TrEMBL record:
SUPFAM superfamilies the UniProt entry points to: alpha/beta-Hydrolases (SSF53474)
InterPro entries: AB_hydrolase_1, AB_hydrolase_fold, AB_hydrolase_sf
Protein name from the UniProt record: Alpha/beta fold hydrolase
Species the sequence originates in: Sphaerisporangium rhizosphaerae
GO molecular function (one): hydrolase activity
UniProt KW Hydrolase keyword: yes
Length: 276
């Protein structure tokens, strides 16, 4: 696995498969590049180059004590794109990865980007404020942090079935559910807490309104981690001219449960065949 070094000398791992037009995948909170195992072969077989980052504190990358704010995470993503000299990139971000993509565009612009896809993204703004009454109170977020600090394995285990919305008939084996929990628990506990807080407090509304490249928003209607009425639908309303796809039985883990539909939707989008 190759590595590169960021401006603050953090060593980050990445994976690079295939040739052709590049797709850069930004992983979910507490997950690493391995989460995209059902997407990479699909796109490589169709002539695309797939680049995946283990963000700091995740996977095989360094686990520094800091740098888990969204500005730094977006700069890490930019450093990877520049390290590889990528242009005409399709950015695909899931959950917090979607927030990183939005912050990347706000900080680094669209010069290297052809299009963006926000999948189950924690956008546009999760925290309740005077001008964001749809958000959740910060006390609710901090209560979750308290549970991480008390029994992090139990928190992930208790939410694993809901993550995949198995109660709606999504066929996910116990082994696969367990693997998801295992991957989350391998993430730095410090990164887990700090990125949770950073994602919850980040306001992306202005950045989303400023997007000019083609954009796709995909969200599950049964997402328990990022409720669709607070995230996906509001994001789609903010991004000019974006295409919006909502999966009625989709939870947060649609990259697994709805992988065939998601891959097809992403492929149509990249080929310019997605309608709004």
């Amino acid at each position: 696995m190759p590595f590169f070094e960021t401006a603050d000398r953090t060593r980050l791992a990445y994976e690079d498969y295939g040739t052709g037009a590049p797709i850069v995948f930004a992983a979910s909170w507490a997950l690493d590049a391995d989460m995209w195992e059902y997407q990479v072969p699909f796109f490589v077989e169709r002539g695309y180059r797939c680049v995946l980052l283990d963000r700091r504190g995740h996977g095989r990358s360094d686990r520094p004590s800091g740098g888990y704010d969204l500005d730094t995470l977006a700069d890490d993503l930019a450093a990877l794109i520049e390290h590889l000299g990528l242009r005409e990139v399709t950015l695909v971000g899931h959950s917090t990865g979607g927030a990183e993509v939005a912050r990347y565009l706000a900080r680094h612009g669209e010069e290297r980007v052809a299009r963006v896809a926000f999948v189950s993204a924690v956008l546009p703004f999760l925290m309740r404020t005077e001008d964001n009454p749809e958000g959740a109170p910060e006390e609710l977020s901090e209560a979750a942090v308290g549970r991480f600090l008390t029994d992090r394995p139990k928190w992930f285990h208790d939410r694993a079935q809901g993550f995949f919305a198995t109660h709606l008939g999504n066929d996910v084996s116990p082994a696969l559910v367990g693997l998801g929990v295992q991957r989350c628990l391998a993430t730095s506990p410090v990164a887990t807490v700090q990125i949770w807080r950073a994602s919850f407090r980040a306001d992306h509304r202005a950045a989303l309104r400023a997007i000019t490249v083609p954009a796709l928003v995909v969200h599950g209607a049964a997402d328990q981690s990022a409720r669709v009425e607070v995230t996906g639908r509001r994001t789609a309303a903010l991004v000019p001219g974006c295409a919006y796809k909502e999966y009625p039985t989709g939870g947060h883990g649609i990259f697994v449960t709805h992988k065939d539909r998601l891959n097809a939707d992403l492929l149509d989008f990249i080929k310019g065949e997605t309608g709004s």
